[in-house]
């Protein structure tokens, strides 16, 4: 699966561009499912995950619901009940939705029928873009951009959910056995980069796609701070574990201490001992733990406890964004075709800001000042989740690179670990 298939920013300035990018994004979802057996498409091993075939259908439902039905006059829905099965969480739609924890209990529609559904939607979407009158294009274009970015989000979820399904299986199957690993090595020295702070601006403005939760751009006052120049590594997290990090309540937030006790956690997700040595489940199968790779698949609580143990803290999302705002986006994204975090490249200044792992920040996921959600059901996309979750920044090794921006705000609950989640350290400066 060469990365070249998914390169290029998603733009739909012209109809020709729109058709080309629609085809490219849709094709990539199907490429990601090619290594799967039919049986792999059906299971759901955790409430928060979804079966691969549900992802393939749901992203098609999104185009059907928010573009084809309202804007293609003679469009006929593929199936009368798919609106119920493949609506994820949109309460304002009359269809209602099938319970999320039970997505993996449906053997029908089968995988072949879901691919027929995709073809039906693809043909109609091409017709909509091609035939759409100028009077509708101003409304269709932004919805098309959301639909394409939405499918890219689900491409990452496809990979993380497949990983969870395969890690659940005691055979520890590899999703792909041709993924490159890295030589086992020790990480280089972690240093810190200083920022003067002051009154800065964060958030998206101007042309180019961004989700509503990245707007409006607004001023933020930052105290002087320092950021770790790379992500925290497996080697460093092992030192925390060997120092009894999971056993000292003084290191933990109360909710975190309750969580690790209830869940019985003593290491990050996907770690396991084989013949006394730590191994890690990857999309390439079970591998020996590489000390120099970034720590990944841990909760906010574990990242916070490590930061406390090390005498530092997690960065705020404003500190992260200000540091990232002048750095070109590059790094270990899905296009790198590793599908696993890689050791920090050598070099000066901040490294690994983009790609590898989503970085937990110490910031709660809240609306920016003067945030306004969109009208109607599409307004449910981000705004209604602005409670009890934390912000993560920077994208991961499973994110398409052209999906990311420095202003991008991902968000998850503090206890979740199945995404490619890691962290870097921060500290106050004088
Ligand atoms: Fe979705």
The computed structural class is: alpha+beta
Overall pLDDT level: 95
Biggest β-sheet: strands ordered side by side in the sheet: 10-9-8-11
Distance between the termini: 48 Å
What is the overall shape?
Answer: globular
Low-confidence residue ranges: 1-7
Largest sheet: 4 strands, mixed
Quickly count the helices: 9
Which range best describes the helical content: under 10%, 10-25%, 25-40%, 40-55%, 55-70% or over 70%?
25-40%
Beta-strand content? 5-15%
What bound compounds does this protein have?
A: fe (ii) ion
The gyration radius over C-alpha positions equals 22 Å
Sequence of secondary-structure elements: HHHHHEEEEHHEEEHHEEEEE
- Total DSSP E strands: 12
Overview of this protein structure:
This protein has helices at residues 15-33, 52-71, 82-86, 111-131, 134-168, 234-242, 254-263, 300-309, 317-324; strands at 192-195, 198-202, 218-222, 225-228, 271-274, 277-282, 285-288, 358-364, 389-393, 410-413, 421-422, 426-428. Strand 6 (277-282) and strand 7 form a beta hairpin. It is globular, with a radius of gyration of 22 Å. It has 430 residues and is of the alpha+beta class. Mean pLDDT is 95; it is low at 1-7. Helix 2 runs parallel beside helix 4 (111-131) and helix 7 (254-263) packs across helix 8. The strands form 4 sheets. Strands 10-9-8-11 form a 4-stranded mixed beta sheet. Strands 1-4-12 form a 3-stranded antiparallel beta sheet, covered by helices on one side. It has 9 helices and 12 strands. The longest helix has 35 residues, at 134-168. The structure holds fe (ii) ion.
